[in-house]
Each structure stands twice: as C-alpha cells, then as structure tokens.
Amino acid sequence: MLRQVFYTYFHFMNVSIEPSWKTKLQPEFEKSYFKQLVGFVKEEYRRNTCYPKGKDIFAAFDYCPFYDTKVVIIGQDPYHGPNQANGLCFSVKDGVAHPPSLVNIFKEIKVDIGTPYPQSGDLERWANQGVLLLNATLTVRAHQAGSHQKKGWEQFTDATIRTLSTQLEGLIFLLWGGFAKKKAALIDVSKHHILTSGHPSPLSANRGLWFGNQHFSKTNKLLSEMGKPLITW
C-alpha cells in the first residue's frame, strides 16, 4: 500500500525513496500536510526550474539506508544555482566549483585529520559510509534561496530526525549554525551524541565560529569508542 501511495504522489518526477526509509516514514506520507507538499512541489517543478532533479530529491535517504546511519549532518535547503544540488546537503556534483561553505568544510578536515583537499565536492562517498546528509528543505526554485521553505518539508525532515532519535542508538548529530542547533530539541541526548559549532559559511567562519571545531576527528573518536567503523572523510 505504501509503495502505491508514494508513487501515486511522485510518479511524474521519477522520484523514489530507499525501501527502509519508505517503511519508517510511512506515517508521514499519509498525512495531509505531505499531500499538500507534493502538490506544491509538482506545480513548482512544472512551472519553474527547480533543484535538485526529481530523482535526487530523496538522495540523502537513498545513499544512506536507515539502519546504516551513523552520523547526521543537517543543512537548510539545496543549492539554487545550475548543476549544483545533488540531494545531499553541502554536496555538489563532480566538476562543479565548490561553494564557500564546502570549501571551509574541506579546509577544516585538512587541518583536523590531515586529509588532502579533494577535487570532488560530491559527498556521496560520505553518505555511502552512513552519513545522512539531510537538508531541512529538500527542494528549491532556481536562483531563489529558501523559496520552498515553510511548505511542509521541515515537518517531514523533523519527523525524520525524531524517527532516527527514537528508533536508533548511538548516532552522532553534527549541528552547524543556529538553524541546525534548533534541531537538538528533537534528539534524545541520553541515547545519542550532539556536536555543535558555527556554520561553515564564510560569515560564521570568519568570525572564528567554524574553524578548529575538530568535528571530524571527534566523530571518529566517538565511533571508535562505540566499536563502529570510522568515517573516511
């Protein structure tokens, strides 16, 4: 029944979602707000250029199945420039210039754990290791940042965070910036770890709120203490 409901909503855009997540998020797909959200997204993609491509809307889930999740990074909404958004927060497609926030992420990794600055800005390699790269809003109109906010995506992704918090243990949530830090209220800190810092954007980083947070080495230290495989950042 769930497969039928989900594809009735999204068949026109070649959209799917990974099976374990489909099962876990079934209650959300059946709620009225989600039906209204889908109607809005359909119309937006029909009338305007929107990102990411339909097949990539749920890429964060597709590359990181529910029970494989070890780390959660929360962004705000997708990049709104041509050929940038690929459905994973902070990530861009191969060959695309790295946006400033991603540049600062890679700079911190280099200093923190010594990994050379990479050519590719596609973070699929992280997602495949259990890093859920979740934007709070999963779609955006071209060249209009925040244009799909407050249409229902936040309710859906908040439910995602609650489901992770409730049904799993030992996750590490990396909350960067004021927006992401607000999501701490959805997380059971008796079961999970939360690391917070400023956002990697230049505005925050230049004020000394990002560099030196050592979140990548700290994450791997926590994973090691829990007996879990480390992330190759």
UniProtKB/TrEMBL annotation:
The keyword Nucleotide-binding does not apply. It catalyses: Hydrolyzes single-stranded DNA or mismatched double-stranded DNA and polynucleotides, releasing free uracil. PROSITE patterns: U_DNA_GLYCOSYLASE (PS00130). Its main location: cytoplasm. GO terms for biological process: base-excision repair, AP site formation via deaminated base removal. Residues 62-223 form the Uracil-DNA glycosylase-like domain. CDD domains: UDG-F1-like. One of its GO terms (molecular function) is uracil DNA N-glycosylase activity. The active site is at residue 77. Its EC number is 3.2.2.27. Keywords: Cytoplasm, DNA damage, DNA repair, Hydrolase. It comes from the Bacteria. It is found in: Cytoplasm. It holds the Pfam family UDG. GO terms for cellular component: cytoplasm. Gene3D superfamilies: Uracil-DNA glycosylase-like domain. Excises uracil residues from the DNA which can arise as a result of misincorporation of dUMP residues by DNA polymerase or due to deamination of cytosine. NCBIfam families: PRK05254.1-1, PRK05254.1-2, PRK05254.1-4, PRK05254.1-5, ung. Belongs to the uracil-DNA glycosylase (UDG) superfamily. UNG family. This is Uracil-DNA glycosylase. It comes from Flagellimonas meridianipacifica.
